[in-house]
Write a structure and sequence with these properties.
By secondary structure, the protein is an alpha+beta fold. It contains 4 helices and 7 strands. α1 packs antiparallel against α2.
Length: about 160
């Protein structure tokens, strides 16, 4: 018998957010870098200003992301919605064949395997898409959650 259960209509959505301690460390690092370049003058005033503005801007983005929780993976009855600073990926349950993982640069990476009709609809060349959504959590834990939440109930293709 084929497994069809996953996140279904009426279920609470599953949301995977960034680890608080890890994002706080990044925010603190960016703040220290901005503060450091604001105080030094041996690299020149132009380089100091450019680096201070650059690190200050990324500090503010990271801090706001931490407060507003912009970056996250939401799993609900419609599918998977991965939102990061610069990119948003949405996939419906009926477009996904499975999830797997692969070693890439000595680290585990989650791979999303699309069905043939989804590859044609999205005009992609490869049905495998890297899905970097662990947000500092162990890849195996996120992979188990993704596989468990995949709803394989037959649906009409949109």
């Amino acid at each position: 018998m084929k497994k069809t259960k996953g996140v279904r209509k009426g279920d609470d959505p599953v949301i995977i957010k960034a680890m608080v301690w890890r994002q706080s460390a990044l925010t603190l690092f960016l703040f220290v870098c901005a503060f450091f370049f604001a105080l030094i003058d041996y690299v020149g005033p132009v380089v100091s200003w450019v680096c201070t503005i650059f690190f200050g801007l990324f500090f503010m983005l990271s801090f706001l992301d931490q407060l507003l929780q912009w970056s996250r993976l939401r799993i609900d009855e419609h599918g998977y919605d991965l939102r990061t600073w610069l990119k948003r990926q949405k996939y419906h349950h009926e477009e996904i064949e499975s999830f797997s993982s692969r070693a890439y640069l000595n680290r585990r990476l989650i791979i999303l395997q699309l069905k043939r009709h989804a590859v044609e609809k999205l005009k992609l060349h490869d049905p495998e898409i890297p899905f970097p959504c662990s947000f500092g959590r162990p890849v195996d834990d996120v992979l188990v959650l993704l596989q468990k939440s995949l709803d394989k109930t037959p649906r009409k293709i949109k």
